[in-house]
């Protein structure tokens, strides 16, 4: 049986980072989705840099992902619109 690919957003933050680390320690495949590659954990092998509002990059990052752990990021004026764009892109990616 193939291991599922799990994507984790906010992987440089407290919650997403803890989830990503637990997945790694458990030997699971994780794709870390971050806004700044330089902040990604040194053990991360699959890192994608994107923001919630970048639909095309999100679709590319999530294509082939089996499970998505989405951490809602910091407050912003267009937070709702960004999240809806990300969710729509996730749906389109399958």
Note down, in words, how this protein is organized.
The protein has helices at 14-25, 55-62, 79-93, and strands at residues 5-9, 29-34, 47-49, 67-69. The protein is α/β, with parallel strands linked by helices and 94 residues long. β1, α1 and β2 form a beta-alpha-beta unit. α2 crosses α3 (79-93). The longest helix is centred in the last third of the chain and has 15 residues, at 79-93. It is globular, with a radius of gyration of 13 Å.
Topology:
Layout: E1 5-9, H1 14-25, E2 29-34, E3 47-49, H2 55-62, E4 67-69, H3 79-93
Parallel strand pairs: 1-2, 1-4, 2-3
Helix pairs in contact: 2-3
Q: Estimate percent helicity.
A: 25-40%
Number of helices: 3
Mean pLDDT over the full residue set: 86
pLDDT under 50 segments (min length 5)? none
What quaternary form is this?
Answer: single chain
C-alpha end-to-end distance: 20 Å
Radius of gyration: 13 Å
Main β-sheet: number of strands, strand sense, barrel status? 4 strands, parallel
Structural class: alpha/beta
Which terms summarize this structure?
18% strand; globular; 94 residues; 3 helices; alpha/beta; 4-stranded parallel sheet
Question: In short, what is this structure?
Answer:
This protein has 94 residues and is of the alpha/beta class.
């Amino acid at each position: 049986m193939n291991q599922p690919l799990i994507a984790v957003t906010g992987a440089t933050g407290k919650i997403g980072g803890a989830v990503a680390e637990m997945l790694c320690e458990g030997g699971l495949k994780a794709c870390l989705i971050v806004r700044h590659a330089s902040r990604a954990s040194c053990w991360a092998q699959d890192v994608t840099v994107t923001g919630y509002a970048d639909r095309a990059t999100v679709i590319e990052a999530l294509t082939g992902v089996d499970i998505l752990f989405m951490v809602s990021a910091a407050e912003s004026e267009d937070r709702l619109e960004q999240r809806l764009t990300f969710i729509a892109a996730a749906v389109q990616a399958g």
